[in-house]
Amino acid sequence: MIRLTLLLATLFFLVFQSSVLLAQDSKLYPFEIEGKINADTGKLMLMPLHHAEYYPENVEVIQVIVENNSFHFSGDIPYPLGFTLQYENSYTSRIFVIEAGQQSITINIKANREVPEVDNQSMREYQADFTAAFEPIYQRRTRYNERRAGLRQKYQNEIPDEIALELEKEYKSMYALSDSVLMQYVADHPDSYLALWKLVELFSMVGYEDIYASTYAHFSDALKNTYPGKVLGEKLQVAAKLAPGKPFPSLETVDTDLQELPDQPC
What is the pLDDT of residues 183-227, one digit of tens each? Predict the structure, then answer.
């Protein structure tokens, strides 16, 4: 029980230390977005990820009304930040990066859960280097989805256990390879805000994996010292201590007479 209490105290200290470290103000830079959408009107929101702790306090959801297939967003950000778009209840985009300055976005509401067309430096990187690096993964995923759909149709959604296990193995192998590709991409592009937000998205969706910490280590010091970079580093550090199979962190404890106590099981 002592160990559990001390672990909770340690985690609280790490979180508190992180909040103090990240409380420093950063200079803000204005951004402007001119957008086109295949909808005449309706409510459109520019949204941070659900994990708001990756953002400075001034970054909030921005809501606008589409008029004549057009929309406009503006605000202030300290660094390139990851966002998603939501149109009414019918469309939500994948994460993309907004930068300071002028940029444009084109939304196809029929392409739900896909990355919209964004014209800025980070998203031009996505269209070029990032997509090229992941093209083998995209092709493999397409083949996997086609095979799985064919098997579901063949067996009327009752895929035999042996084949289901084979599919699961292929699925895990595919995403392990994807994680490795991302780590190599960061090693080759250590200043990529796009890759930083892709890692934030992965960690937020999947949880801790050792390869995420290894990937983070390849980022430049400049990126690690941004607001989201510091938050991600702190979260990975805490998560690594709690990951299954990791040794319990060594803690020095004392009793009320300031005498050291041996580690005790909960």
Answer: 999 999 999 999 999 999 999 999 999 999 999 999 999 999 999
> Which of 76, 95, 99 has its CA nearest to residue 30?
76
Backbone angles phi, psi at 101, to 5 degrees: 95, -170
> H helices then E strands: how many in the chain?
8, 11
Token pair 């067996």 is found at 155
228: its two tokens: 């989201």
CA distance 85 to 209: 27
Q: Which residue has the tokens 């004549």?
A: 68
* E strand or H helix at 103: strand 101-107
Q: How many residues does the chain have?
A: 266
Beta partners for 73?
33
Percent of all residues in the chain with a pLDDT value above 90, rounded to a whole number: 77
Distance, CA of 58 to CA of 76 (rounded, Å): 8
Q: Is 165 left (phi over 0), alpha (psi -120 to 50) or beta?
A: alpha
Residues 20 and 58: beta-carbon distance below 8 Å? no
Q: Is 27 helix (H, G, I), strand (E, B) or coil?
A: coil
The 10s digit of each residue's pLDDT in 55-81 is 988 788 999 999 999 999 999 999 999
Element (H, E) at 221: helix 221-224
- Find the helix packing angle between 161-188 and 131-154, rounded to 10°: 170
**CB-based contact 208:240 (threshold 8 Å):** yes
* Better-scored residue on pLDDT, 9 or 185: 185
Residue 117 confidence (pLDDT) above 90: yes
Side-chain-side CA neighbours of 108 within 13 Å: the count stands at 7
Measuring CA to CA, which residue among 149, 142, 148, 54 is closest to residue 95?
54
